Structure formats: C-alpha cells, structure tokens
Amino acid sequence: MNKNPIPEILAPVGSKEAFYSAIAAGCDALYLGGKDFGARSYANNFSFEELGDMVDYAHLFDVKIYYTLNTLVKDIEIRDLLQVLQSLVDIKVDAVIIQDMGVYQLILDHQPDLVVHGSTQMNLHSVEDVSLAKNLGFDRVVLSRECSLMDIRKIKDQVEIEIEAFVHGALCYCYSGGCLMSSLYGGRSGNRGKCAQPCRMAYTIDDEKAYFLSPKDQMTLGILPDLIEAGIDSFKIEGRMKSPEYVYAAVSIYKKYRDLALNLLEDNRVKDYKVSSQDIEILNQLFNRGHFTEGYYKQHNSDKMISYDHGKNLGLEVGSISYKKGLTIDLDQPVSKEDLLEIHVPGQLMTYAFQLDHDADEIYMTKQLFTNKGDLINTDFIKGHPGLKVYRIRDHKLLEKFRDYHSPLLSIDYTVMAFIDEPLQVIGSYMDRYTVVLQGSTVQVAANRPTDHKSIRKQLAKLGDTAFVIGDLTLLGDESIFIPLSELNQLRRQICDELKRQILESYQRPGKSLTEYSLHKTLPGPRESDQGMETGSAKREGQDNCHQFSYLIKSVEQWETLFEWCKNHGETLGSQIGFLYLDVNDIQAKALIHILHESQKLKQSLPEFSVYLALPHVLFHQYNEILMKKLQDIDTILYDGFLIRTLGQIKIARDFNKVFCTDYNLHVFNEPAVEAYKGLGALRVTGSLELNRQAIRQIGSKSTEVEVLIYGRSPLMNAANCLYRTRYKKCQKSSDGHRLVLEDRKGEKQEVFCHCDFCYNTIYNSKALYLLDQKVNAGVLRLEFTSESGDEMKKVLDEHGGVVLKDFDQDLYTRGHYKRGVL
What we know:
The protein is α/β, with parallel strands linked by helices and 823 residues long.
C-alpha cells in the first residue's frame, strides 16, 4: 500500500476542445469558467447549458469539475452572481474557486452547500493563512506559487486541508492577487480576469533594457517525487488560454511521471526516477519562455528564473542563419512549411516570425523572406549578425500528433433475449456495476429477412455523441426472428439514459460544504472583549459624513515632517487627525521605537489619535521570526493595533491582544466583503485601489469603518523575485533595503523598494494617486508616503489641509481608478 496520497492531475480548460482533450489524456479533475467572474475572461468560457452537459460528461469518467469564481465582484454584479451560484448548485459542480471574501460571504449566506476552494489570488502562503481558510470552511487552498517545499510541508503538517499547487505553466512575477500594473496602466484588471500582461514587456534598469519582470515558465517533472512527499493533493497545470494540444500533452506527460514517481516511492527506488529528454523537448516545443524553471519550490528567488532576453514563447532552436547570395538556414532538424519559425536578434529584443514555402531537411535557401502575415522581411540586418539562431515556435506535426486523440468511452455490454412469441428482453451493463433490464414487444417470426446478430449489433452500436460505445453482444433466442429496428433504437436510448443516471447518482462529490461554518466561529487565538480595545472610527459610529484622516509613513524624516505638521494644524483639523500607520517593512527597529515614543506627544493633544503597525504584504515562516523579534522588542502600550496585509496576520493581532484593520491589498470590493472582514473582527477595512467613486460611495458612505486611499504612489506589484538580484546578478541584503528605478517603454519611472528583511520587492506607480481635491465618501481617508522627502511631503500635507490650493497636475499625479473604474 502506497503511503503517499495520489495527487490529482488538474487540467486547465478554456475551450470545448480542451475539455475533451483533458479527459482523453487522463486528467483527474479540471478547472474552467463561465462567461463572467473568472480570472481568464478571454478564454472561450462556457454557458450554463454547455456546462451542465460537460459536468455530466466529466462525472461519467469520475473527473471532477472546479468552477472558477476567482475575481473581484462589483456590488452591481451581485444579483447576477447569485444566479450563477444557483446554477452551479443545479449543475452539481464539484467546487468553486474564489478570491473575493465578499463572494465567500454570499456563498455562506445563500449557497452554503457549495464546496469552496481558496484561489491562489488570495495569496495564502503560511500556516496562519491556511489555518484561517480551513476555519472558514474552505475544503482546499491553492497556495501561492512562491511557496517552497518547506512551506508546503509545514502547512500540511499543521493544517488538515487539501493543498493544490502549480506544477507547470506560466509564472506571474507578482504575488497573485496583488498585481495592479495592468489595471493602472490601461484599466484592464488582472483581479477581474482581464490582465494585459505588461510584465511581459521590456523595461530598463540603470541603462540596461531587458524583460526583468518576465519569469520563465514552470516545469516540475524532475521534482515530482519531492512534491508528492511534501503532501500536495493536486498538481495544477496552468493554461486556460492554451491550445487543446498543449492541454493533452501536458496532462498525459504529468500523469505518466506522477504514476512513475508513486510506484518508485512505494518500492523505495526513487533514485531510479528519471525524465526523458524527449518528453521535456515536447513541452519545450509546445510553449516555453526561455526554457523552464522549477519555480519557487527549492529557491526563494533567482535571476535564473527570469526570461531575461525573451518575453514570449521561445520555442525550440532548429538552426542558424547565414547570408551569402541569399538567406541560408542551416537546419539542425527538419522543418515543414506549416511550422512557424522565428529569428531572434540579440541585444535588440527583436524577433521576426516567418514560415517556409516548402519542407526542408538540412538547408533552406531563399532570396526573400516573408512574415507569417505575408509581409516582406528586410533581411539586410542579417548581414551584420552572422549566426543568428532560428527557433520553431509552432511545430505543425507535433500539434497534429496531439490533435489526433480519441475521447474515452464507456463500454456497454448487451445481452439480447429474443424467443418467438415471448417479450423481447435487452440487458445493458457497464463494468458489472450498473445494469439496465428492459422489455420490448413480443418477438415475431420473420416473414422475409430475419433480424440477425449483425443487424442487432449495428442498431445497438449507434451511440452517436454519447459517452458510450458498444462492447460485447450476446444474442440468446430462436432463429428466424423479427425485431423492428425502431424498437431496438428506442431500447438503446433508454438503456443509455438509465446507465448514465445510475453512474451519475453513484458519483461521490469531494469535500465538505459551508453549512456548518460561520465567520464568527473562526477567530484564531484567545479573544478578549473588543469593547476595551476599540479606538478611532469605532468611537465615531453613527457620526455620518465625519471624515478622519490616516497617514502611512516609511521613514523617520517623514515622521518628523508629519509630527510638526500635525502640531501646527491640530487646532484646525482636531479630531479629524485619526490614525498613523508605521510600515515595519521599511522602518528599522530602533527608528520604529523612537517614532512610537514620539507619537505619544501627539496623543496628548489629539485624544482620538491612534498608532498602528503596518505588517508585511507577505510573511513566510522563515521571516516570521524577524517580525516577531521586532514586535516583541516594542512595548505594546506604545501602539493601538495592526494594519494587516494577509489573512493569517489576524492571528498576530489576537496574540498581541490588539485591534486590526485590513489594507487595500486584501481587496474589499463590495459590501459583502466589508461584512466578511467585520465578521472576522476587523475594526476598519481599506477599500481596494480598483474601486471607482460610485463603488466607494456604495460601500464607504454606509459605514464609518471603510477607509480609502486619497494620496500615495500605488503599489503596482509585490514580488518575491528580487529586481536588484536580477539586474546586478548578486544579492546584497541590506537592513535598509535597496531602491531601484524601473523605466517602461514610455519613459515612465517606477520606484522599486526591496524589503530585504522580508525578502520581497514592491514596485510603485510613477505617479501618485491624488484625490485631495475630491469629495470621497468614506469614513477614513488615507495619505500614504513612500519615498517623499520632508519638503515634498509638507507640500502635499499643506494641500491636504487646505493651506495651499492647486490645480490637478496630470504630469505628476493620477486619479487612478476613481473616475474610470476597471473593466
């Protein structure tokens, strides 16, 4: 008996063809989406009529279907979402994958029988994160791609929950759920399933241009035994936008090596585990970005994980180019005219895609070269670049091979009993587990041509587009019988329908529902009376339209500027000066304690003034010690609570007996999300940066517990892979962190903070969000400072306090999503 659980092979499905190819390749489960609310809105998603048939078809083969609801949902979409939830219950999907805590609240309230999986968009990566998800009733979590094998083992050891992890396909540069680059660049939100992938473009750092934000694709065949031993329950293959051929090949290859690894582990012969170069070459040819990486399972970051010179499919090298009397391609392997080839020009980040006009084996010569769109390529550049490599990015014959698959079918064995003057009896069975016995009309003597074995089999084999195929046929009875063919057709249809019903009724759905769960039962750790811990906005409940202001800072200089400004304007703004957030990512321990002591002076003159510690956006186990040491060295009387950025950080607040507020990266996007976080004990919630003014008014004007950013450089990404290391090929950990400038193709310059204590990067928008001159409907309005000097900060504070009035400068500032929203 194998002591290791068998991880399911989870296939991506973005089209009907990919659906059938995934099942034909032997997947155990697949994930797909409908027309709305999925994180791949540009896939060929399905109507519920289609989905109902697909769910039944998959369940006939014991294949589970997980439905993706992993986007943020607007309040105006909730009515539609509730209809979707009802439809998912009706068609009996096996689970839904969600990101939005508001969606969780709606499922809890309206469809608690649904099984829920936490999407990778939730950025769950620690024992504390996953424990809370389990306590909420999640049956499974899709861990952050950045989790190591050590992280996964620790989670599996301490939390009894299913773990799903990515094993193959594209890697996002950003921690999933935290990317705002696409939405702030062009209004297409990755959190709404419409990512434009600006990370796959070239950027410049310190005069060097490269694809700094474009990770290579992940491929983990070589470490599947390690992943199995770590306790992963589901091997997830990325690629809902990929072709059916890609899906078939990836599923079948991963299934092959999963089974091999399990057998070798059972026999204690894991040292014999090997992956063939041919299989790796197949995956390389189907899609790769600069070949493959094993991802974060055995390394936290590395410049070798980045596809530095190429931001899209690299394909497979097939030859090189020279130029004599014409263009010559010296081939390392045969190519066909249907293949799509590319020439790469090093140092220029340029490619030229083309097709040949005939098949070629060793050499190909031409005087003219055309792109795959029929445009003539100017080949003069080749003369100055001898030896340019040629890559095949589409292999026509390989695609044909994986296109020519046969969908699996269930074999029906028939027994036909046909005795003259007795009722016809037809028995259909599948796997000796499911049997249907039907009776027809009285069998007659044939007047002319008898109904023989061949004729009966022909009619019973007409199974069309069902999931069945005829197996054995046993005919018992007299000779010279007559059975109407129409009757055989009718009996065949009835047998198929009844067998299908029996199989589907016996299908066992995995997991548990949310019926027994409640937000208020999930609070981790000892819970003291919240009454004695309430501060700030909780004291102001019922005081409609009475704003308070909060300020987030990252340095001592910023504190000194804010301190002086608050002293000078305390009489004017009074109780509106509400909250101070100190970012522990960037303020070192001694400076943090100094600021906390100094902040007590403001509390004397501003009685409602509260101080919160803003925790890291990511907190893996190995960095938790650093944070705990920082916090334990601080007298808890010096601060009032925490600004949390992961779900698991609720436990930190409880352990220190402090209140907490949620930051905008936890994406409060709708009213149910406000209620969900309040149910978890949040004193305040910060609205998502992707909300527009109508949405802010919807959730903010009804609650003094909603906070909104009105000034600050919005974080485009939080990322594990270090830009400093990628650019300079070395790690120079600094307690003060590093600062870089990332320049895009339009010359916009984004600041990068490397938070070395917790080993992650934040890329900030080049323009600060500026809503100081807008009437924003929320209980608390926040000003957030990143790299502003004291003088720069004072100018902003003066504008905020009404000391100086100025016109909006679009060269310096942005309205973000306030007026345009997101798609």
